[in-house]
Amino acid sequence: MQRDPLATNAALMARRNAAVARGVGQAHEIFVARARNAELWDVEGRRYIDFAGGIAVLNTGHCHPEVIAAVKSQLELYTHTCFQVLAYEPYVELAERLNALAPGDFAKKSLFLSTGAEAIENCIKIARAHTRRAGVIAFTGGYHGRTLLTLGLTGKVAPYKSGFGPFPGEVFHALFPNELHGISVADALVSVETILKNDIEADRVAAFIVEPVQGEGGFYIAPPAFIEGLKKIADRHGILLIADEIQTGAGRTGTWFACEQWTVAPDLIATAKSMAGGFPISGVVGRAEVMDAAAPGGLGGTYAGSPIGCAAALAVLKVFEDEQLLARSRAVGARLIAGLQRIAQAHKAIGDVRGLGAMVAIELFRDGNLARPDAELTKRVVAEAARRGLILLSCGTHGNVIRVLVPLTAPDALLDEGLRILADSFAALQ
Ligand code: PMP
User: Fold this and answer.
1) pLDDT tens, 227-269?
2) 130: burial class by Cβ within 10 Å (0-12, 13-18, 19+)?
3) Class for domain 9-63+324-428, per CATH?
4) What CATH architecture does domain 68-322 belong to?
5) Which of 69, 306, 363, 392 is the most exposed place for a label (fewest CB within 10 A)?
6) CA nearest 286: which of 51, 70, 106, 79?
7) Can you tell me the mean pLDDT for 71-96?
8) pTM (two decimals)
């Protein structure tokens, strides 16, 4: 492939900075030329291993041939009718497939949208329509999107919420349990009850919204006892339970939805990101009578559930079956955890190695002191790894977590190569 000698990362960064709004962040000063499975190449021809997966979008890898083929054949048929004007079968088939995959011994229905934030907005609309209540309780450190309602639900001010308020009312934040940082399951459940005592009557609360594993918040896993306790409070007061599976879904945690590993079923599930392997589509799957609460015309959107997104999502589901990617997710997770634990043994800054399936992270502390989260070192490790050819993302309310969202289709040799680069990066910074 012929490369444009003027298209260096630095030159493109200068154009970007002059032309693109400052508020759009960028983790790495790299411009991509092409990508395949878990590898990508920049405009200067440099190769990288991708442990970021476009923030949890590429569980089936960059440009999976089956997904690309499905999109190409859809492109030849029709690209847009607007489902609310003229319907198409792939949307219905995708709804049938996800309804069958979602946990819970009750009838389910789905609807499709375009972005994760839109799926969350629709979860809240549907929950309010069904319960005829306004209140929503979300959790500290949670992340639910960048629209004004989803920012209101998000439990972290900087950089997401700063300067953008006021946010829609009737949203409250309870504590998310986090043993590592001193918040027990009991503390978290008490904080929910406290909101019901101090801020809003239980019979005005429509829903609890929770991530099975907090994504942007730092890859903290919701303990089973917390979810069970939350569900008990929900049932006592007729409050719905919403699982935000935008980052955890589509096989990342070893099951299609992470909430399949719960002992209770959520009433609504928000899904997006990896469900369509790089094409924009999101959805809400849930209890049929709840999903049907909104009147015809109340839900939807011009591009919502686009034929391209539906075709891609159906192809992703087929790839999961053909390549047994749920089992692979668990194997990738085990390999990453073992590799990261080995690195942690040599570097005491790594105070925790954790994961659910292939949703894996390490957390960094100054001298391994759990009271001193080390965001600075985290930034330096991520930058050093990128210089050495490994793309990583940080996260966490303290900015001290390095997360791995590598495609599940990545071969073991590539996982090991990525882990080696990470180990070398730690060693170089010692
Ligand atoms: N919820 C969670 C848990 C997410 O991780 C994200 C995206 N990082 C969103 C919601 C918002 O999705 P989108 O950026 O597609 O609007």
Assistant:
1) 999 999 999 999 999 999 999 999 999 999 999 999 999 999 9
2) buried
3) alpha beta
4) 3-Layer(aba) Sandwich (3.40)
5) 69
6) 106
7) 98
8) 0.98
